[in-house]
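Pasting as-is:
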Amino acid sequence: MKLKAGLLTTVAIGAILAGCSGNKADSAEEGLLSDGVLAVGVTAGPHEDIVNEVKKLAAEEGLEIKVISFSDFVQPNTALVEGELDINSFQTGTFLDTVVEESGYDLAKIEPTISIPMGIYSEVYDDVSEIKEGDTIGIPNSPTQEGRALQLFEEAGLITLPEGSGQEVTISDIVENSLKLDFIASEAAQLPAQLQDLGAAGINSNFALDAGLNPKESGIFMENIDNLEQANYIVSRTEDKDDEAIAQFVEYYTSDEIKQFIEEEFKGALVPSW
């Protein structure tokens, strides 16, 4: 795989212009590589691991990538809008749609990356059928992920949600809760650490993996990854979506080398979506 001549030119220009502006958003007219580096935001765990592999692949052909890791789902989009990042790679399309609707951020989906199942985890039970009346259940408190977790518990047969509802549902929308489960919403990244104080929790697999929980071995109930509708996406500011550096990043990310890394490293716990 060879870096396009136009991108090499952009890199060369970037070396000359580096330091002229500390704000990437202000220098968008000169291209995202005006400072010679493509800044990519990720969340800790699989997204960070994969983009670090992309970084190695890109470095072989002269594209420098700076990987910036975050511990929550809010900061990567804020940092992107404020120009601290050039792109990010951590969120589902549904999550981004909700963020854009609620915040007014002008962000664009570029390319699907991976699909990551959510699972139910417990340090007390080996099967969801063992969950007892009155147990405290943890779920993520971020937009769409709360609803996604509730749909997972409905799929497991523990609660009933309004017919036809999607990932916009919240705890207050639960129609039937025969076990009187006490659902509490927490920061998604904190749920693995809180698991010792919970009957069970719905945890995104990227945070589970980061905490040493293998979804295939530790999850007591998992989403069917073949049926996941929402892939994760590479995201940029809308004004930059056609920047050549992003196209090159996508080319590296969706390469056979990265696909092989994902399959060997995560062993089916997450899968490529391209």
